[in-house]
Structure formats: C-alpha cells, structure tokens
Amino acid sequence: MELDKVTEIFFSPTNTTKEVITAIAKGIGVTNTEAIDLTKPAIRDKFNLHIESSKEILILGVPVYEERIPEILERTLTKLKGKGQAIILVALYGNIGEGIALKQLKSLAEQGGFKVVGAASFIGEHSFSTSKLEIAQGRPDRADLKQAEEFGKRIAKKLKNAADIHKLPELKIEGKLPLMAKILPRNSARFFAQKPQVEKENCNSCGICVSRCPVGAIAKDDLEINDMICLRCFACVRVCSQEARKIKFKKGWIIKFILKMKSRKRKEPRTYL
What we know:
Layout: E1 5-10, H1 16-28, E2 33-37, H2 41-46, E3 49-50, E4 56-63, H3 74-77, E5 80-81, E6 86-93, H4 101-111, E7 115-123, H5 142-160, H6 179-183, H7 208-212, H8 235-239, H9 252-262, E8 270-272
Parallel strand pairs: 1-2, 1-4, 3-5, 4-6, 6-7
Antiparallel strand pairs: 7-8
Helix pairs in contact: 1-5
C-alpha cells in the first residue's frame, strides 16, 4: 500500500504531543501533510472530518489526563469518520501512568471506521513539573523523538508490504486504570493544584495566556481563570515570558512527595505494531 498524505490530528497544550506526532510523520516520509490542532477551541467546535482517500493515513495524538484521554475531546473525536483508512494512535503521559488512553482512542477510531495499524505511548514533561519538582523534565527528549521517527518508518514499511491493510491482525493494546483513577472524579487535577493566578506586578498584559488556553478559561479583561473549567495543563504558565503565573499545589508537600515517588524511574515509549 502506497501513501500519498499524512494528516496529523492532536491536542497539545504544551506542544509535547505535537512534537511526537511530527516526528512520527517525518519517519513515514510522505511530503504531503496536514495538521489539525484540536488544542484550539474554535477548531474543536467546528471539527467534523470525513476521510475519503484510501491512500491517506492519520496520526491521532492526545495527552493522558488522569489515566484517560481528556474529557473535552471525547465528543469531538466521535466526529472523525473514515472508510477503512489506516490510523496511528499516540498517547503522551507524564512518566507516571499511561492508563487506558490508548484503549479509548482505539475504540473511538474503530467506531469511526478506521483500521488501527500502529499505536504508541510516549512520555512528555508532566503538567505539574517545575524547576523544583522535575517530572519528565525536557521530554520528549532527543532519544524519544528518535524512537518516534523510527516508529513512523516501521509503520511505513509495514503498510508498503501489506497488500490489504484490513487483513492485518488486530492490535492488542495493554493498559488499565489504577485504583486512584477509578475513585477520583473526572477533572480531579483541580483538587491537587491551584489555578495559576496571575501576579499583576509581573504581568505585561500581552494576552498570550488567553490565546493559548485550550478551554478558554482565562478572561480577556482581568486575566482571571475560571476554576471550574481550568484543566491544570499549565500552558499559561509555560508560555508566559514574564513568569507571571506559577504552579502551586494544594497540600503541597504531600502532593510533591507522591509525584516524586511515582516519577523516580524513567519510563520509555511503548509501541504496538
């Protein structure tokens, strides 16, 4: 099977998922590419994609929130429809737990009419990572992105050798929810971290935090955050050149201890082919 287009679809508030998706696409080696950034609320609102070409392959990537795909994407991804085209699934997690995100993506992709030909879990810097509490700091790093590119090459080779992708064996993806994820409600990150209040004395009112918030939680006039819809992705913290917002934990030392213990060992990407 020859490919003539790669479509990258991703939700990536801090660009880590996007980096991995781009590296996989590079490995596939098709020059005709399209990127659809579901991080932007306006794109999600009008998203309704029907794939027609049998020579197009999709790469769908999301970060792992609370061991699952982000809840705000569940309805959006049901609007992705195909007719048996190949799709690659990517879940990016912060070195603590990959959970069931890949399984969820696989179910959504198959319900949408796609053939899952590859899947992978990669590691990216955790949303809660700071200079004093480093959790997968700087990841995906060079080694991660090299693995992502190699993964893309292996997918391209697999498809080139396949006369009919629908006769390829079904991928068996591993993953389970830990007890804590079963107990806690969705969007429970707000129980562990405060919303990143703006420190007005440092803020120059550039508005970049407003434009980069993936859920539109930041008011344009006073830059205050709606606590109930804030994801605690901390994209607003990462993009602020003035360091006017900071990550602060509730029950600080307890949360920091738990995160530090759970993230001690460097985890490596896991791929399914």
